[in-house]
Amino acid sequence: MTTALLRYQTDLLLRSQRWLAPLLLYAVFLAVGVRTGEPVLGALGFAAAALLPVTAWLVRICLGQEPAAARNVVAAAAGRQRAHVAALLAALACAAPLGVVAVLGVTVVSDLRGVGFAWAVASGLIATTACVLTGAAVGALTGRPLLRSRGWSLAALVLGSLLALVTSGSPAKYAVTSLITGARDATVTLPWAAFPGALLLAAVAVAVSVRATAWRE
Fold it and tell me: Taking the alpha carbons of 118, 29, 167, 204 in that order, is the dihedral positive or negative?
């Protein structure tokens, strides 16, 4: 049932073409912020950071893409909370491959001096994973059912994404800062500590969002 729900939510997202706007936004971020031949770690840090609000946006789209009638039918058949989790996973299933492609592409066009290709990719993937999970947390807390108003939801998403990238203690900030510092000092330090922090943050945010479906819908 879970696989069927995930397939259903992913198909809804792809057919609606609502994924196109976040994808174009990310492409613009990379086109403006990444230059051929610049230090690879700094470029990877920028690419990871840019994926955080994009992931949050994808999560917000997936949580609100079903018409109310269809949502009620799915909830009756599979359970409201399971359907909610499937929507969250569908967004992650779209954001994660985008991050992998970005890491590989940025690594190929950037300056690898002093950094091995494998180390650069590993650093980029860890930072990207941390940013994707943190973005998922932001999207889960600023989307349905916690915030139903489109205006307030969008404003909270933008503010939450900004805070996640600049607040001390944020897993995303730690991962991105590690890469930028590595680019400046010509050293490679894999930001492993960012992963468990981001995973915990995402798990708590998803739990809160899922629990809210019991009393908000």
Answer: negative
